[in-house]
Batch of 4 targets.
Target 1
Amino acid sequence: MLIKSSLTLGAITGAILGVILLIPFINSFSCFILFTVVGAGIIFYLKKNSFIGVLSLQDGAMIGAISGFISLITASLVYLPASYILSLIFSPLSKAGGNILSSFIVTSYSIFVMIMLVFFMALLSALFNAFCGLIAAYIYEKIENIPIKEEDEFIIEQ
């Protein structure tokens, strides 16, 4: 249940941020959100709507990593074709005439490089979002102040 909700919410968030990436002056802020805030935002949404109960640190990191990876893949799948189509429409109107993806469309080798670039950026996004999800789970753990049961304590004798 946790993985399925992380996948769907990450895909929805990625699609929304992929559309926002097309707006010129907001795209850097959207890229920042895509790399850092998605995992913590999904944890906040799941806790606020009571879809998850007690959240461990491992669960927070897992939700952050999965949602970060899927959101960047989905944002790339929305942004790259839409950017190419918009550059085909608006490039005859501009005097410069250069489009963003012209160097990637020339050969199949370039397309392979672009796919690998998106994949490794998604891994980087998963790493950052796992850390932010870990921090969000730690904050929720401190807010909820869950008491430790006696059987969970470790007593070290010398």
Target 2
Amino acid sequence: MNHDPLSDRLREWALPPPAFDPAFAARVQTRLHAGPSTGWSGAFRLTAAACVLLGVGMGVAGGLRAPAGHSNEQLAAAYARSIDPLLMTADARGGHAHP
């Protein structure tokens, strides 16, 4: 039988149980009743809100500019012209297509 040293070591490995802290529950309750903490949380919320508003603004601006570009019909017509079999055949023979 093939013995894998890692498997043997993992089988022997045991974590000690966490130390019991009788004051843990009291500290948690104190922090919960103290209210929200100060510091980075306010700045983070302000920055996150600014990023969301900037993203929404950019999306609206891009959406308003979209009609000024190519419409779906123009893109479809250009695509249809690009796959015209007569033009493809003429290009393959090195000649010109005659309508």
Target 3
Amino acid sequence: MVPAYNAHFSQVFKSFHFQKPNFVIFMEHENPANCDVFVVVNHEFKGFGTIDTSLIRNSRLEDIVEMVKPMDSNPDVVKIIKDYLYKSKENIKYF
């Protein structure tokens, strides 16, 4: 019973992980000087926000995390991000 449960738990846990642990997805904003960002750190969604586009290229992940609104991860957010990563390889910065 326990090994079967552990195998099931391991499979469920993997479904919440992303292929790469640390990245930022950035999307166009109505103001071209800004972009909307989704931040993932250690395979976990950390938050969402709008930041200055020029900051994406030269910022460390820690700096970007501080610029976004912290949010709790949940299965819906994970699914949205995974769907985006599956459909598009653009506008993603990996750390």
Target 4
Amino acid sequence: MVRKKTHKVRIKNYITRRKNEQPREKHQNHSKTLTVASQKHTIVADFTSLKGLIAAEEAEFLRKRITGIFSVYTSYSKANPLTKEELEFILKTFSKPLDEITIEEMDRAYEIGWRLFVEDPEHDPRGFILAIAAAYIRAYLRQKQKREQKEKHNLTKKRTTPHTLPL
């Protein structure tokens, strides 16, 4: 009789342990998938910037969208997984005009968004939006930087090219 009870207790403990382990394993696999997907979005954003396909209006739309989402973030009923500094950084950065935002700031915003979405057990969708917006704005800024360098190069090339008179 005692042996049957201990066997039942062992089975019950085993089942409880397995139930607790499965979500952790699922979370790890899910996080890997999300990481790969997020990296692919970054590649697509960078590729579209190389082609010059990201317009200022699109980047401005994303900037305003992030400002709106994270300005009400503190009133959300769920516990806030962001630090006070991270939230202030997001609000400050995305409140600036697009021309004043730097690529390094978008790198940091991307990392915050990625962490918020992938590492948070709840997979906060605002983290995904932040990461993708930061990737596209960063790509736009790179595109703009490349265009300005090209224009500067063409301008100096025109100045150094000697003018020849037609014969």
